[in-house]
Amino acid sequence: MTAANEFLNIVGLINEAKKIFVVGHIMPDGDDISSVLSLGMGLQKLDKEVSMAIDWKIPSYFSELEEVNLIKTYEDINNFEADLLIIVDASSPDRIGRFSEHLNRLKSIVIDHHATNLYFGNYNWVDPTFGAAAQMILRLNKALGVKYDEKLAHVNLMGIETDTGFFRYSNADERVFRDAAELISYGARPDKIAKMILENKRLEQFQLLSRMIEKLKIECDGLLAYSYLSQEDYETYNCTEEDSGGFVSEIRSIKNVEVAIFISEFEKGEIHVSFRSKDWFDVSKIAVSIGGGGHPRAAGATLKGDIEEVVNEVVKITKAALEDELK
Ligand code: 5GP
Ligand code: MN
Protein backbone atom coordinates (compact mmCIF):
# COMPACT_ATOMS: atom_id res chain seq x y z
CA MET A 1 0.00 0.00 0.00
CA THR A 2 1.55 3.32 -1.03
CA ALA A 3 1.24 6.39 1.19
CA ALA A 4 -0.87 8.07 -1.54
CA ASN A 5 -3.34 5.16 -1.61
CA GLU A 6 -3.49 5.03 2.16
CA PHE A 7 -4.22 8.77 2.20
CA LEU A 8 -7.19 8.27 -0.16
CA ASN A 9 -8.47 5.35 1.93
CA ILE A 10 -8.31 7.50 5.04
CA VAL A 11 -10.17 10.40 3.41
CA GLY A 12 -12.91 7.93 2.39
CA LEU A 13 -13.15 6.39 5.87
CA ILE A 14 -13.38 9.80 7.55
CA ASN A 15 -16.03 10.98 5.08
CA GLU A 16 -18.19 7.99 6.03
CA ALA A 17 -17.66 8.21 9.81
CA LYS A 18 -19.96 10.19 12.12
CA LYS A 19 -18.32 9.77 15.49
CA ILE A 20 -14.53 10.12 15.60
CA PHE A 21 -12.07 9.78 18.45
CA VAL A 22 -8.77 11.69 17.92
CA VAL A 23 -5.91 10.66 20.22
CA GLY A 24 -2.39 12.03 20.68
CA HIS A 25 0.65 10.70 22.54
CA ILE A 26 1.80 10.73 26.14
CA MET A 27 4.29 13.47 27.10
CA PRO A 28 2.68 15.59 24.37
CA ASP A 29 4.77 18.15 22.51
CA GLY A 30 3.69 21.08 20.34
CA ASP A 31 3.29 18.99 17.19
CA ASP A 32 1.14 16.42 18.94
CA ILE A 33 -1.17 18.97 20.59
CA SER A 34 -1.38 20.88 17.31
CA SER A 35 -2.18 17.74 15.32
CA VAL A 36 -4.91 16.59 17.72
CA LEU A 37 -6.51 20.04 17.79
CA SER A 38 -6.18 20.78 14.07
CA LEU A 39 -7.71 17.46 13.07
CA GLY A 40 -10.38 17.57 15.81
CA MET A 41 -11.38 21.17 15.09
CA GLY A 42 -11.33 20.48 11.34
CA LEU A 43 -13.63 17.48 11.76
CA GLN A 44 -15.98 19.54 13.95
CA LYS A 45 -16.29 22.01 11.09
CA LEU A 46 -17.53 19.09 8.99
CA ASP A 47 -20.21 18.45 11.67
CA LYS A 48 -18.61 15.23 12.88
CA GLU A 49 -19.07 14.27 16.51
CA VAL A 50 -15.49 14.47 17.79
CA SER A 51 -13.67 13.60 21.02
CA MET A 52 -10.06 14.74 21.32
CA ALA A 53 -7.92 13.15 24.02
CA ILE A 54 -4.40 12.66 25.38
CA ASP A 55 -3.57 10.40 28.33
CA TRP A 56 -1.20 12.91 29.94
CA LYS A 57 -1.27 16.36 31.52
CA ILE A 58 -0.86 19.09 28.89
CA PRO A 59 2.22 21.22 29.80
CA SER A 60 0.97 24.40 31.45
CA TYR A 61 2.53 26.86 28.95
CA PHE A 62 0.14 25.56 26.28
CA SER A 63 -2.85 26.66 28.39
CA GLU A 64 -2.47 30.18 26.94
CA LEU A 65 -4.02 28.63 23.87
CA GLU A 66 -7.70 28.40 24.88
CA GLU A 67 -8.34 25.55 22.40
CA VAL A 68 -6.28 23.12 24.53
CA ASN A 69 -9.35 22.84 26.78
CA LEU A 70 -10.93 20.81 23.99
CA ILE A 71 -8.44 18.00 24.72
CA LYS A 72 -9.83 15.58 27.29
CA THR A 73 -8.00 13.25 29.65
CA TYR A 74 -8.57 9.50 29.88
CA GLU A 75 -10.63 10.07 33.04
CA ASP A 76 -12.87 12.68 31.34
CA ILE A 77 -14.14 10.23 28.76
CA ASN A 78 -17.06 8.03 29.74
CA ASN A 79 -18.09 6.77 26.31
CA PHE A 80 -15.37 5.25 24.19
CA GLU A 81 -17.68 4.25 21.33
CA ALA A 82 -16.73 5.71 17.94
CA ASP A 83 -16.79 4.81 14.25
CA LEU A 84 -13.11 5.64 13.99
CA LEU A 85 -10.10 6.02 16.27
CA ILE A 86 -7.49 8.34 14.72
CA ILE A 87 -4.04 8.41 16.34
CA VAL A 88 -1.68 11.26 15.46
CA ASP A 89 2.11 11.71 15.84
CA ALA A 90 2.57 8.39 17.71
CA SER A 91 4.89 5.64 16.50
CA SER A 92 3.82 2.73 18.71
CA PRO A 93 0.81 1.65 20.83
CA ASP A 94 2.55 2.38 24.17
CA ARG A 95 2.82 6.04 23.11
CA ILE A 96 -0.95 6.57 23.47
CA GLY A 97 -1.01 5.39 27.09
CA ARG A 98 -4.24 3.75 28.27
CA PHE A 99 -6.06 4.56 25.01
CA SER A 100 -4.17 1.61 23.47
CA GLU A 101 -6.87 -0.57 25.15
CA HIS A 102 -9.24 0.54 22.38
CA LEU A 103 -6.99 -0.36 19.45
CA ASN A 104 -8.36 -3.85 18.93
CA ARG A 105 -11.96 -2.78 19.42
CA LEU A 106 -12.27 0.28 17.18
CA LYS A 107 -11.37 0.76 13.53
CA SER A 108 -8.09 2.66 13.77
CA ILE A 109 -6.08 5.05 11.62
CA VAL A 110 -2.50 6.07 12.42
CA ILE A 111 -1.20 9.37 10.98
CA ASP A 112 2.48 9.85 11.72
CA HIS A 113 5.84 11.12 10.47
CA HIS A 114 8.22 8.91 12.51
CA ALA A 115 10.38 6.52 10.46
CA THR A 116 10.27 4.19 13.49
CA ASN A 117 6.47 3.81 13.24
CA LEU A 118 5.23 0.24 13.85
CA TYR A 119 2.14 0.53 11.58
CA PHE A 120 -0.08 -0.45 14.51
CA GLY A 121 -3.39 0.83 13.14
CA ASN A 122 -5.81 -0.84 10.71
CA TYR A 123 -4.84 1.96 8.31
CA ASN A 124 -1.48 3.73 8.52
CA TRP A 125 -0.50 6.92 6.73
CA VAL A 126 3.15 7.22 7.73
CA ASP A 127 5.43 9.63 5.91
CA PRO A 128 8.80 10.52 7.49
CA THR A 129 9.47 13.13 4.79
CA PHE A 130 7.21 15.52 6.71
CA GLY A 131 8.95 17.66 9.34
CA ALA A 132 5.76 17.72 11.41
CA ALA A 133 2.64 15.58 11.72
CA ALA A 134 0.75 18.89 11.65
CA GLN A 135 1.68 19.23 7.94
CA MET A 136 -0.05 15.91 7.27
CA ILE A 137 -3.16 17.18 9.09
CA LEU A 138 -3.16 20.35 6.95
CA ARG A 139 -3.26 18.14 3.82
CA LEU A 140 -5.91 15.84 5.27
CA ASN A 141 -8.15 18.74 6.33
CA LYS A 142 -7.90 20.31 2.90
CA ALA A 143 -8.72 17.00 1.17
CA LEU A 144 -11.77 16.68 3.45
CA GLY A 145 -12.95 20.17 2.47
CA VAL A 146 -12.29 21.88 5.83
CA LYS A 147 -12.36 25.68 5.55
CA TYR A 148 -9.53 27.30 7.51
CA ASP A 149 -10.15 30.25 9.81
CA GLU A 150 -7.66 32.15 11.96
CA LYS A 151 -7.97 29.87 15.02
CA LEU A 152 -7.58 26.62 13.11
CA ALA A 153 -4.63 28.03 11.15
CA HIS A 154 -2.95 29.18 14.35
CA VAL A 155 -3.17 25.82 16.17
CA ASN A 156 -2.09 24.03 12.97
CA LEU A 157 0.99 26.23 12.60
CA MET A 158 2.09 25.46 16.17
CA GLY A 159 3.07 21.87 15.25
CA ILE A 160 5.07 22.93 12.21
CA GLU A 161 6.84 25.62 14.18
CA THR A 162 7.73 23.49 17.21
CA ASP A 163 8.78 20.27 15.41
CA THR A 164 11.18 22.24 13.19
CA GLY A 165 12.69 23.99 16.25
CA PHE A 166 11.11 27.25 15.13
CA PHE A 167 12.22 26.70 11.54
CA ARG A 168 15.87 25.98 12.48
CA TYR A 169 16.30 22.19 12.07
CA SER A 170 17.26 20.23 8.94
CA ASN A 171 13.59 19.19 8.56
CA ALA A 172 12.67 22.85 7.89
CA ASP A 173 12.54 22.34 4.12
CA GLU A 174 10.78 24.28 1.39
CA ARG A 175 7.48 22.49 2.00
CA VAL A 176 7.61 23.48 5.68
CA PHE A 177 7.97 27.15 4.77
CA ARG A 178 5.22 26.90 2.13
CA ASP A 179 2.82 25.24 4.60
CA ALA A 180 3.68 27.82 7.25
CA ALA A 181 3.19 30.67 4.78
CA GLU A 182 -0.21 29.26 3.80
CA LEU A 183 -1.32 29.07 7.45
CA ILE A 184 0.01 32.57 8.10
CA SER A 185 -2.07 33.78 5.13
CA TYR A 186 -5.15 32.37 6.95
CA GLY A 187 -4.23 34.34 10.07
CA ALA A 188 -1.80 32.17 12.13
CA ARG A 189 0.71 34.15 14.22
CA PRO A 190 4.19 32.51 14.44
CA ASP A 191 5.44 35.22 16.81
CA LYS A 192 2.69 34.45 19.34
CA ILE A 193 3.51 30.73 19.27
CA ALA A 194 7.24 31.42 19.76
CA LYS A 195 6.55 33.79 22.65
CA MET A 196 4.18 31.35 24.37
CA ILE A 197 6.66 28.49 24.25
CA LEU A 198 10.08 30.18 24.44
CA GLU A 199 9.47 33.27 26.58
CA ASN A 200 7.22 31.97 29.28
CA LYS A 201 9.68 30.47 31.77
CA ARG A 202 9.34 30.40 35.54
CA LEU A 203 12.34 31.46 37.60
CA GLU A 204 12.48 27.95 39.09
CA GLN A 205 13.14 26.58 35.59
CA PHE A 206 16.33 28.62 35.41
CA GLN A 207 17.46 27.16 38.74
CA LEU A 208 16.68 23.69 37.43
CA LEU A 209 18.64 24.48 34.26
CA SER A 210 21.58 25.53 36.39
CA ARG A 211 21.41 22.19 38.25
CA MET A 212 21.33 20.36 34.91
CA ILE A 213 24.41 22.30 33.74
CA GLU A 214 26.20 21.49 37.01
CA LYS A 215 25.75 17.78 36.25
CA LEU A 216 26.73 18.06 32.57
CA LYS A 217 29.41 15.67 31.33
CA ILE A 218 31.33 15.60 28.07
CA GLU A 219 32.70 12.42 26.45
CA CYS A 220 34.18 11.20 23.14
CA ASP A 221 36.44 14.22 22.65
CA GLY A 222 33.54 16.64 22.97
CA LEU A 223 31.19 14.83 20.57
CA LEU A 224 28.86 13.52 23.27
CA ALA A 225 27.35 15.65 26.04
CA TYR A 226 24.83 14.46 28.60
CA SER A 227 23.16 15.34 31.84
CA TYR A 228 20.29 14.13 33.96
CA LEU A 229 17.88 15.23 36.68
CA SER A 230 16.58 12.94 39.40
CA GLN A 231 13.17 13.14 41.04
CA GLU A 232 14.94 14.82 44.02
CA ASP A 233 16.33 17.54 41.72
CA TYR A 234 12.84 18.33 40.44
CA GLU A 235 11.50 18.43 44.00
CA THR A 236 14.33 20.65 45.25
CA TYR A 237 13.48 23.31 42.67
CA ASN A 238 9.71 22.87 42.90
CA CYS A 239 9.63 21.73 39.29
CA THR A 240 8.19 18.88 37.26
CA GLU A 241 9.30 17.19 34.05
CA GLU A 242 7.55 19.81 31.88
CA ASP A 243 9.95 22.43 33.28
CA SER A 244 12.90 20.69 31.63
CA GLY A 245 11.43 20.73 28.11
CA GLY A 246 14.15 22.15 25.86
CA PHE A 247 17.07 21.20 28.12
CA VAL A 248 18.30 18.61 25.63
CA SER A 249 18.46 21.30 22.94
CA GLU A 250 20.56 23.44 25.28
CA ILE A 251 23.01 20.55 25.57
CA ARG A 252 23.13 20.11 21.79
CA SER A 253 23.86 23.82 21.39
CA ILE A 254 27.38 23.30 22.77
CA LYS A 255 30.06 23.83 20.10
CA ASN A 256 31.26 20.56 18.46
CA VAL A 257 28.71 18.40 20.28
CA GLU A 258 27.16 15.89 17.86
CA VAL A 259 25.05 13.89 20.30
CA ALA A 260 23.17 15.29 23.30
CA ILE A 261 21.38 13.19 25.89
CA PHE A 262 19.13 14.45 28.64
CA ILE A 263 17.64 11.95 31.08
CA SER A 264 14.82 12.85 33.46
CA GLU A 265 13.33 10.89 36.29
CA PHE A 266 9.81 12.30 35.91
CA GLU A 267 8.43 10.05 38.67
CA LYS A 268 10.38 7.88 41.10
CA GLY A 269 11.84 5.05 38.99
CA GLU A 270 10.12 6.31 35.79
CA ILE A 271 12.69 7.66 33.38
CA HIS A 272 12.54 9.50 30.07
CA VAL A 273 15.57 9.65 27.81
CA SER A 274 15.82 12.39 25.17
CA PHE A 275 18.38 12.16 22.39
CA ARG A 276 19.35 14.87 19.91
CA SER A 277 22.04 14.97 17.23
CA LYS A 278 23.38 17.85 15.20
CA ASP A 279 24.53 16.62 11.79
CA TRP A 280 25.11 12.95 11.11
CA PHE A 281 24.54 10.52 14.01
CA ASP A 282 21.21 8.63 13.85
CA VAL A 283 19.86 8.76 17.42
CA SER A 284 16.62 6.98 16.50
CA LYS A 285 18.56 3.68 16.23
CA ILE A 286 19.77 4.00 19.83
CA ALA A 287 16.28 4.98 21.01
CA VAL A 288 14.74 1.96 19.26
CA SER A 289 17.37 -0.34 20.81
CA ILE A 290 16.14 0.65 24.28
CA GLY A 291 12.44 0.40 23.42
CA GLY A 292 11.74 3.93 22.17
CA GLY A 293 11.64 5.65 18.80
CA GLY A 294 11.78 8.97 17.00
CA HIS A 295 13.66 10.67 14.19
CA PRO A 296 17.36 10.59 13.17
CA ARG A 297 18.01 13.96 14.87
CA ALA A 298 15.50 13.72 17.78
CA ALA A 299 14.45 10.55 19.53
CA GLY A 300 13.46 9.29 22.93
CA ALA A 301 12.55 6.36 25.12
CA THR A 302 10.76 5.75 28.39
CA LEU A 303 12.23 3.27 30.86
CA LYS A 304 11.87 2.09 34.41
CA GLY A 305 14.78 1.68 36.80
CA ASP A 306 17.36 3.35 38.94
CA ILE A 307 18.25 6.75 37.45
CA GLU A 308 22.04 6.43 37.90
CA GLU A 309 22.05 2.93 36.39
CA VAL A 310 19.95 4.06 33.40
CA VAL A 311 22.28 7.03 32.82
CA ASN A 312 25.35 4.75 32.87
CA GLU A 313 23.78 2.21 30.56
CA VAL A 314 22.43 4.74 28.04
CA VAL A 315 25.74 6.61 27.92
CA LYS A 316 27.63 3.33 27.51
CA ILE A 317 25.61 2.17 24.49
CA THR A 318 25.63 5.63 22.88
CA LYS A 319 29.40 5.91 23.31
CA ALA A 320 29.89 2.47 21.77
CA ALA A 321 27.66 3.32 18.78
CA LEU A 322 29.36 6.67 18.30
CA GLU A 323 32.84 5.13 18.47
CA ASP A 324 31.71 2.46 16.02
CA GLU A 325 30.61 5.14 13.52
CA LEU A 326 33.95 6.92 13.89
CA LYS A 327 36.00 3.80 13.10
P1 5GP B 1 11.61 14.12 23.14
O1 5GP B 1 13.03 13.86 23.38
O2 5GP B 1 11.34 15.55 22.80
O3 5GP B 1 10.70 13.58 24.19
O4 5GP B 1 11.22 13.30 21.85
C1 5GP B 1 11.94 13.39 20.65
C2 5GP B 1 11.33 12.47 19.62
O5 5GP B 1 11.39 11.12 20.06
C3 5GP B 1 9.87 12.74 19.33
O6 5GP B 1 9.69 12.62 17.95
C4 5GP B 1 9.12 11.68 20.06
O7 5GP B 1 7.97 11.33 19.40
C5 5GP B 1 10.10 10.52 20.15
N1 5GP B 1 10.00 9.88 21.47
C6 5GP B 1 10.24 10.46 22.67
N2 5GP B 1 10.03 9.59 23.68
C7 5GP B 1 9.64 8.43 23.11
C8 5GP B 1 9.27 7.15 23.63
O8 5GP B 1 9.24 6.90 24.84
N3 5GP B 1 8.93 6.19 22.72
C9 5GP B 1 8.94 6.44 21.36
N4 5GP B 1 8.59 5.45 20.53
N5 5GP B 1 9.28 7.62 20.85
C10 5GP B 1 9.63 8.61 21.69
MN1 MN C 1 5.90 15.25 15.60
Entry summary:
The protein has about 325 residues and is α/β, with parallel strands linked by helices.
Question: What does this protein structure show overall?
Answer:
- The chain is 39% helix and 19% strand.
- The chain is α/β, with parallel strands linked by helices and 327 residues long.
- The protein folds into 2 domains: 3-198, inorganic pyrophosphatase (n-terminal core); 203-326, Diaminopimelate Epimerase, Chain A, domain 1 (Roll), CATH 3.10.310.30.
- The protein has a 6-stranded parallel β-sheet with strand order 3-2-1-4-5-6. Strands 7-8-9-10-12-11 form a 6-stranded mixed β-sheet, sandwiched between helices.
- Helix 2 (30-45) packs antiparallel against helix 4 (150-163), helix 3 runs antiparallel to helix 4 (150-163) and helix 4 packs antiparallel against helix 5.
- The protein is globular, with a radius of gyration of 19 Å.
- The model has no long low-confidence stretch (mean pLDDT 97).
- Residues 31, 89, 113, 132-133, 163 line the site of manganese (II) ion (MN).
- The site of manganese (II) ion has 6 residues, from loops.
**Can you identify the CATH superfamily of the largest domain?**
inorganic pyrophosphatase (n-terminal core)
| Biggest sheet details | 6 strands, parallel
CATH level-1 class of the largest domain: Alpha Beta
Name the hetero compounds present. Answer: guanosine-5'-monophosphate, manganese (II) ion
What CATH architecture label of the largest domain applies? Alpha-Beta Complex
Order of helical and strand elements: HEHEEEEEHHHHHEEHHEEHEEH
**Which band does the percent of strand residues land in?**
15-25%
Number of strands: 12
